[in-house]
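Is this the right way to post structure tokens for a design question? Let me know if I should format differently. Anyway, here goes:
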């Protein structure tokens, strides 16, 4: 009887701990954060890169990855929750394109959204993830008005563009916890059968 409870308890413990916490796979080069893979935004996985370039070079063929402000806000929040962790949360200037200014070090990672028409006319608004030294100052904020094709963040030492790409779906393997839980259930069935015999 006790064995059955131990098997059930261990199975539940493994299932619960296997799904705790999530962070993206960080792209770190020479100690600097260049982006991340497996960032989950509204249940979809994305890869993101941090670039200090002109807008015209970060748009895909005719549009940005996100089309609505809600999507851009969710993406900016995902950066704060899944990417800016550990040393990259404490020292924002370790993000590619961000230069340290003073003790109030922070990084603005801008996510543009909307359709880009390929000309220098006004194209879209932006949302940003502000990653500051103090967690209480981390926030998602409106990044300002309309941007144009020749807008660059090269002049802004604390701002970079977030370039998002949808990750190709891959087959999802069953986690080890499922196999352990299934083995426990088979064991319980075997114990019951043995008792009835």
């Amino acid at each position: 009887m006790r064995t059955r409870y131990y098997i059930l308890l261990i199975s539940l413990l493994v299932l619960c701990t296997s799904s705790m916490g999530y962070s993206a796979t960080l792209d770190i080069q020479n100690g600097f954060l260049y982006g991340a893979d497996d960032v989950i935004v509204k249940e979809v996985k994305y890869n993101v890169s941090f670039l200090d370039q002109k807008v015209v070079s970060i748009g895909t063929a005719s549009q940005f990855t996100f089309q609505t402000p809600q999507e851009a806000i969710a993406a900016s929040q995902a950066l704060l929750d899944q990417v800016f962790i550990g040393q990259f949360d404490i020292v924002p200037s370790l993000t590619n394109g961000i230069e340290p200014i003073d003790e109030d070090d922070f990084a603005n990672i801008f996510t543009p959204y909307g359709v880009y028409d390929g000309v220098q006319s006004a194209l879209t608004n932006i949302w940003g993830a502000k990653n500051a030294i103090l967690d209480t100052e981390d926030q998602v904020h409106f990044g300002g008005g309309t941007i144009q094709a020749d807008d660059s963040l090269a002049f802004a030492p604390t701002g970079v563009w977030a370039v998002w790409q949808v990750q190709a779906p891959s087959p999802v393997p069953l986690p080890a916890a499922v196999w352990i839980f299934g083995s426990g259930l088979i064991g319980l069935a075997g114990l019951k059968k043995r008792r009835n015999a």
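Format looks fine. Someone answered above. Worth noting: The first strand starts at residue 25 and ends at 29. Residues 45 and 61 are 20 Å apart (CA to CA).
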